[in-house]
Amino acid sequence: MSDLRTAFGEAFGRAAEGVWHAPGRINLIGEHTDYNDGLVLPFALPHGVSVAAARRDDGVVEVRSRQAGGTVTAPAEGGTVVSEGWPSERAWAAYPVGMARVLRERGTGGASLLIDSDLPQGAGLSSSAALECATALALCDLYGVEIDRPELARLAQRAENEQVGMPCGLMDQSASLLATPGHALMLDCRSGLSAQVPFDPPAAGLALLAVDTRASHALTGGDYGRRRAECEEAAALLGVDALRDVKDLAGALGRLRDPVLRRRVQHVVTENHRVEASVGLLRAGAVTELGAMLNASHLSLRDQFEISWPEADAAVDAALRAGARGGRMIGGGFGGSVIVLTAADRADRVRDAIAAAYAKRGWTAPEFLDAVPSAGARRLA
């Protein structure tokens, strides 16, 4: 933290007024249910994005990153960033600038921002939402704007949808802002209501490993948007507001002629049930039984939603062969990370098995992170 404050002074020639942090997240279960008004169960990581910031009186947002390098300057008030056609080397700055433009309507203004992150980029751990949420807290505090956390999460989602052009749901921003240590967040993405569910793998003699498969992804591409459009088309054909509302799965599948849409519906409906079942297991203290839920989710994402990728499938298969209780891909798909639930005393064996599977195929070695449910976004200084 003190290092970031010092770096801010060196970058901008004045002192930071504060430092704010927002975590990345892992979604334990409930994938691609968020934009279908469904249920999700994420938790915050100890890793995330920190922002040192100070106000400006010229209505400008000046953003620098310790990872990306360079400086991006843009008005805090204006149209959407996506409509301005920013080049790829400035794409990272669309998130804080977009957040500033949404919050400008609530009374915030210009700011100088220095960004630092210890989240691996492209790993599907929601570095973009962490950046939005850290920026949002900084701007609100700097300008004395009070917005409750659930509403702020929706504003951050809006920034990503409208400003960046990424049609994400509400989960990532909610997890970053609302999570608490030792818990997963049961979130109803339709109502925005949430509940803290105890989740402490080490206390149960377990380890939850996040495996960065090193297959990077970019969700602003077409595949994610197509999945969302397919879900919306299926809901319209079934006469429901969202796939969350499908109660009779067999009947719904019988009414859809397109086999692709049938597969999408089957995943979303059964994934919502898996979230509910997982919450029940956690509340009953049956953490070890989550493995079956993770395995079922991965198979559904691979075969019904068709968004897994070879590195993810190989990681899950190697982990299970090494004795892990369960595993699945996480995130939007087509690259990113996998989570693996295993007995703590078997974690090293599982890591070695996954690494060996990658080496056998000539792939870049995976990276591992211990996924510990941690605190949500906050001001550090």
TrEMBL record:
Coiled-coil blocks: none
Which spans are transmembrane here? none
User: What biological-process terms (Gene Ontology) are attached?
Assistant: galactose metabolic process
Its top-level enzyme class, in one word, is: transferase
Where's the Galactokinase N-terminal domain? 7-55
EC id = 2.7.1.6
Which UniProt keywords are given for this protein, alphabetically ordered?
Answer: ATP-binding, Carbohydrate metabolism, Cytoplasm, Galactose metabolism, Kinase, Magnesium, Metal-binding, Nucleotide-binding, Transferase
Tell me the InterPro entries matching this sequence: Galactokinase, Galactokinase_CS, GalKase_N, GHMP_kinase_C_dom, GHMP_kinase_C_sf, GHMP_kinase_N_dom, GHMP_knse_ATP-bd_CS, Mevalonate/galactokinase
**GHMP kinase N-terminal domain ranges (all copies):** 95-178
In the UniProt record, does the keyword Lyase occur? Answer: no
The source's domain of life comes to Bacteria
One GO cellular-component annotation of the UniProt record comes to: cytosol
Residue ranges constituting the GHMP kinase C-terminal domain according to the UniProt record? 281-359
Instruction: Provide a Gene Ontology MF annotation, just one.
Output: metal ion binding
Of which family is this protein a member? Belongs to the GHMP kinase family. GalK subfamily.
Name the record gives this protein:
Galactokinase
Q: Which organism is it from?
A: Actinomadura verrucosospora
